[in-house]
Amino acid sequence: MRNYQQELLNIIFLLNLLILKSHLQSTKTNFFGTLLKYGVPLVISVGLCWLLFSNDDIDLAGMMEIVRRECDFRWILLNLLLGIMAQVFRAARWQIQLRALDIRPPFRQLVLSIFGTYSVNLVFPRLGEVWRTGYIAARERAPFTTVFGSMVADRLADTLTVLILLLLTFIPAGAQLREYLGQSGGALARISEILGSPLLWGFVIAAMAAVWFVFVRFPEHKVIARLRSIISGLWKGFAVVVTMPGRGRWLIFTVLIWSCYIMSLYCAFRAFPLTAEVLVIHGPTALAVCFVLTSLAMGVPSNGGIGPWQWAMIFGLTLYSAGVAGLTHEYALTFANLVMGVQTLMLIVQGLFTFGCIAFSKRSKPLSK
To answer: What Pfam families does the record tag this protein with (predicted)?
Structure first.
């Protein structure tokens, strides 16, 4: 199974390079670019799910029996409710940024935009953020780049939060994580080698110097002028976080968002007796490791995290399976698939609700500020 994981990581790395290349190409729509943006994530999701079930030892009937016999769906319901609360808090946090830009959509519309974002990402990965930006910008007749900049700041805050949690997690569990990564084909050593490569940093510096030269040498060129305008709008939406009123409330909502996510996973662990036993034996460290790994897995281009999330969860539970009798690969797979399955179903329901509300509001009255 470890060989499967290593080959899959290599494939994902190459596919990410292809996606990056497509984003750097012309903005003109082409079949190849569309295929890379939307086809590749779908292939990754399907491929990872296929690998999850391709093992001859997997018994679907046995997995269903585990769910029927051991799952306490009351904890799963709490898991879903906390996930919804996190999305509502995210809308409240974004509202603070938008008000600082004098963009004032109703809170209800912001909640719908967040609901719709995750639902769109199920079908078109990475397009959900663009959709919510366009929806709010069009509804409020606001500059798209400014709204998009505020969304980028919103997502950057999440990235920084995950990195902080990763660093905090490595304090109690770093040795165990390094040992596992070392057994998985030297992944940690290769990452360190790449980040420490003079060639990589030389290329980064050369690219930044070339961009700076072009902007200074040809400031009046129409393409450069357009890029400056876009960058200015993005920066306006991004930098408002530093100067806006309500920064304290913004930080509180950030804490509430991630507290909901962590407690949501805690509730999922409590739904199964063996994963609950992991919490009893290993404490919050096990929960933190699994949470960070699954959060990082959401960065892999896929449809709503389907596939990468399960792999990351199984990976995390494997680190703590030795002290829990019965926590087999099949049990971990059952747990991961059920949690991801009910969350995906929730996002589908949210999407139907969101776009139904939007369609009804358009039919009732024209969009206006």
So the answer is: LPG_synthase_TM
**pTM across the whole model:** 0.73
- Cα–Cα distance, 161 to 243 (Å, whole number): 20
Distance (Å, whole) CA 45 – CA 327: 25
Sequence letter at residue 272: F
User: What angle, rounded to 10 degrees, do the helices at 222-243 and 73-100 form?
Assistant: 110
Nearest to 54 by CA among 11, 6, 1: 1
Domain extent listing, the chain:
2-9+41-55+66-363
Measure the CA–CA gap between 101 and 234, rounded to whole angstroms.
12
pLDDT tens-digit series, residues 8-48: 444 444 444 444 444 444 444 455 555 455 554 555 555 54
Joined together, the tokens standing for residue 306 give 């389907």
| Cβ 15 vs Cβ 44: under 8 Å | yes
Cα within 13 Å of Cα(229), Cβ side: 9
Interatomic CA distance for residues 51 and 252, integer angstroms: 40
Cβ neighbour number for residue 331 with a 10 Å cutoff? 21
Are 323 and 281 in contact by the 8 Å Cβ rule? The answer is yes
